[in-house]
Design goal:
heterodimer; A: about 290 residues; about 25% strand; globular; B: mainly alpha; 2 strands; about 55% helix
């Protein structure tokens, strides 16, 4: 058994596998992904795209393509084109460095942008920006799992700052409300408005879950969402989408093989009817991509 | 009045007095029960079938399609999915 702990993507990671030794360390995998997908690194593919309005990068094209498909699957409740809105609210650098109010001007409404993908080439039209923060960490969890399985591991659990993916379970994982689930192959992710909060230059208390309809922090009646899905990228994106627009997204979960446990701001916990407290993945469900 | 008449008269008076005591006691008990019932009805919620508005709001799902989560299980877990 091997356990590796490290910090990446602004959070702590914990990886356990039954493999005695692995050729590629999970920390190196996540670092490589962060170097290309973070909008806080000036030399990343995402930053180049936002700055130059075009970038050719296979990893960027793949992850942005997944994110845009999730936007379609959630009727727009998850949207990777919210980079300008987050920056305008002051979330323009890695969260741990937001210690003083932003000097940015608060922007009301959406900043329009359209992303087009042609092979490995990505182009942007419009003044907005791309942010893969709602799916990038989950994607990295999935890549680490696939890499470790490719290296011979049969049992893997990857905890990327609370976004957890597993293979070869069962693994019992704690979720909100003192509840737990048993995952064999799949993922669980939790999003919350109670973390990653800061104060803008205007004195507003804001959080990082943006409602794409308004371009402003979501004012939904939920403040935490736990989503179980076949893979971590999907769980990550859906957890964000449920908080942004629960009335629209909750009915869409089951067709995606996903389930939600949510916390209402008045303190009550609710769940979709088939939330898998003893989760078994659907037949045929598997990590949908391997392209490190 | 003979001794026999005196005893019969005393017995009659005792019965009357005892009846009066019983009737009075019954009246007092009935009055106390009525008062208690009346006090209870003004001191508590009108009826279990009519919940205060705040309670009804707390039991209604915030989004259609959600059901109340079960009670916590408190079992050992390998990791916890933390909010991010």
């Amino acid at each position: 058994m091997t356990i590796e702990e490290f910090r990446a993507m602004g959070t702590s990671w914990w990886v356990q596998t039954d493999a005695e030794a692995v050729a590629v360390r999970p920390a190196d995998i996540v670092e490589r992904l962060e170097a290309q997908l973070s909008r806080f690194r000036p030399d990343s593919a995402v930053s180049r795209l936002n700055r130059c309005r075009a970038a050719r990068d296979p990893l960027l094209a793949q992850v942005l393509g997944m994110a845009l498909r999730m936007r379609d699957a959630t009727a727009g409740a998850f949207d990777p084109t919210m980079g300008a809105e987050l920056a305008a609210l002051g979330y323009n650098r890695t969260f741990s460095t937001i210690t003083v109010p932003s000097i940015e001007q608060h922007v009301v409404g959406r900043t329009w942008v359209r992303a087009e993908i042609d092979g490995t080439l990505v182009r942007l039209a419009g003044p907005g920006a791309i942010d893969l923060g709602g799916i990038g960490k989950g994607f990295a969890v999935d890549v680490v799992i696939c890499e470790l399985i490719a290296q011979g591991a049969r049992s893997v659990i990857v905890d990327g700052g609370g976004d957890i993916g597993v293979a070869g379970g069962p693994w019992r994982i704690g979720v909100g409300g003192g509840l737990d689930i048993e995952l064999h192959d799949g993922a669980v992710a939790t999003s919350s408005k109670r973390v990653r909060r800061w104060t803008t230059a205007c004195g507003q208390d804001v959080h990082h879950i943006i409602d794409p309809r308004t371009g402003l922090p979501s004012a939904s009646c939920l403040d935490e969402a736990v989503v179980v899905a076949p893979d971590a990228a999907t769980a990550d994106a859906l957890a964000t989408a449920v908080l942004a627009d629960p009335a629209r997204v909750v009915p869409l979960l089951e067709p995606l093989g996903a389930h939600a446990l949510v916390h209402e701001t008045n303190g009550a916990w609710w769940t979709t009817p088939a939330f898998p407290f003893g989760y078994e993945p659907r037949q045929g469900a598997s990590l949908p991509w391997v392209s490190p | 009045m003979t001794d026999r008449q005196t005893r019969e008269r005393m017995a009659t008076l005792s019965v009357v007095a005892l009846s009066a005591v019983v009737v009075a006691a019954g009246y007092v008990m009935a009055s106390q029960q009525a008062g208690a019932t009346s006090g209870q009805s003004t001191a508590t919620s009108p009826s279990p079938n009519v919940l205060p508005a705040s309670t009804r709001a707390a039991t209604a799902a915030p989004v259609r399609g959600l059901v109340a989560a079960p009670a916590p299980a408190r079992r050992d877990v390998v990791r916890r999915s933390r909010a991010s």
